[in-house]
Write a structure and sequence with these properties.
Largest sheet: 6 strands, mixed
Strand order of the largest sheet: 1-2-3-6-8-7
Strand content: 15-25%
Helix content: 25-40%
Number of helices: 6
Length: 240
């Protein structure tokens, strides 16, 4: 009886803690600008950063890559299984189940119903909540300060239920190919695509630690490893 009571209590707490966030705002400004209507904005400013090999990759000139600004959680087999279940419920529009599973899994993610003022469309987002770190980018001015970093770095997942099911937009290298988050967002909106995925960490944030460094040894680059949350998500998105 005590075991069953504990399970019931856990589920009750999970339901109480979960909540679908609803925002009416500009998707473009959420991803790469100022959007006070969102719980947090300028999504790209929270990307996990690190440089292992100076000069190896080219990064955005306005954003110094800082050692330890966020991180990448290398998923376990259990993590990927849980994430796959969340994606299944996400695609079935079982929003309550998605919320509950996020709480039970402990993933630092939230589900958002996003009413996009750029297009008038309604999207659903799986987005990571940033921590409270601050990066001053090495300047005295505060205009370029970054408030909050992604500890897990699994990326941003956007679903457009009424979108063109033949189209998935991906931007796997948002720190390195720094222009792609903006371009991918515009393409997603312009083409009424069904999915948009943007990576949450630079290539060098997590790697095998076997010298010398090369991008082929990255663990946080979703184009190079299957042990990444992008893999089950993209697979399921393709099958939608």
């Amino acid at each position: 009886m005590l075991r069953y009571a504990a399970v019931i209590l856990l589920l009750t707490l999970a339901v109480a803690a979960s909540a679908l966030v609803t925002e009416t705002a500009s998707l473009q400004r959420f991803i790469y600008g100022d959007e006070p209507a969102c719980q947090y904005d300028n999504w790209i400013s929270h990307l996990a950063e690190r440089i292992v090999s100076p000069g190896y990759n080219v990064y955005s000139p306005w954003d110094r890559q800082t050692e330890g600004f966020g991180g990448f959680h290398v998923p376990t087999v259990a993590d990927l299984g849980q994430w796959g279940t969340i994606i299944d419920e996400f695609l079935l529009a079982n929003w309550g189940n998605v919320d509950d599973l996020l709480v039970l899994s402990g993933f630092p993610y939230q589900l958002v119903q996003f009413n996009d003022t750029d297009t008038g469309r309604q999207y659903y987002l799986l987005r990571e909540l940033p921590n409270e770190m601050v990066d001053d980018n090495g300047t005295q001015d505060d205009y370029d300060d970054e408030h909050g970093a992604f500890d897990w770095g699994w990326g941003l997942y956007i679903y457009n239920p009424e979108g063109d099911g033949r189209t998935i937009i991906t931007a796997p290298h948002p720190c390195d190919d720094f222009f792609t988050p903006a371009l991918s967002c515009i393409a997603f909106q312009s083409w009424n695509a069904q999915f948009l995925m943007i990576g949450g960490a630079g290539r060098e944030v997590a790697w095998t630690n076997v010298q010398p460094y090369s991008n082929s040894k990255s663990l946080s680059d979703p184009t190079r490893v299957t042990n990444h949350p992008w893999y089950p998500a993209y697979t399921k998105f393709c099958a939608k």
